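Aim 2, interim progress: modelling of the zinc ion-bound target.
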Amino acid sequence: MKSTTTSSRAGSAKRVAKAASQRGAKSAGNPPTIAPYVRKILLDLGEDPDRDGLKRTPERFDRAMRYLTSGYGKTVAEVVGKGVFEQETDEMVIVKDIELYSLCEHHLVPFYGKAHVAYLPDRKIVGLSKVARLVDLFARRLQVQERLTSQIARALEEAVEPKGVAVVIEAAHLCMMMRGVEKQNSVTVTSCMLGRFRSDEKTRAEFLQLVYRGGSR
Ligand SMILES: [Zn+2]
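Predicted structure of the complex, ligand included:
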């Protein structure tokens, strides 16, 4: 008898959880718009949100922000999909100069630049376009450059299980360039080295040499 009671309680707990997740799914499918808040912001900034140029700005901003933060809705597995292949190779793979656009989470202002991503395969390789899509997966969120760098590295490590991963990001932050210290030419460089790139100085040096060879900077 006791076990019956327990299981029926568990059952009702499950039903409650299911109902809650269905509500969650519903609101995720039809997210509330942020447009009314944008209208309020325009008013607070002293603007007239009803003038022609601004009339549709709240809706446009809503759509733009949803796109710019669309990385929240996806997982590493979804992005990589069937893009991982068995391959006997232990040569370093480098994808450099991947365009990168993200939003600083402190000011909601863009930072942009390029990412250089490398890995040392261990019987598995990943389609090169997937590397770029992994960058977008995390760039299309509210970010700090340091976290973005390590998230890309960890995602590649998870997807390919390589002997090592290296990610370097060089980016310019509009929040620094347009306001604050107003340093127009400063570039922030962050790196994350995992596995052999961290433990073996030669591997790391080879990566950096291949990335910066040819005087791209
Ligand atoms: Zn900022």
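The chain has nine helices and seven strands. The two ends are 75 Å apart (CA to CA).
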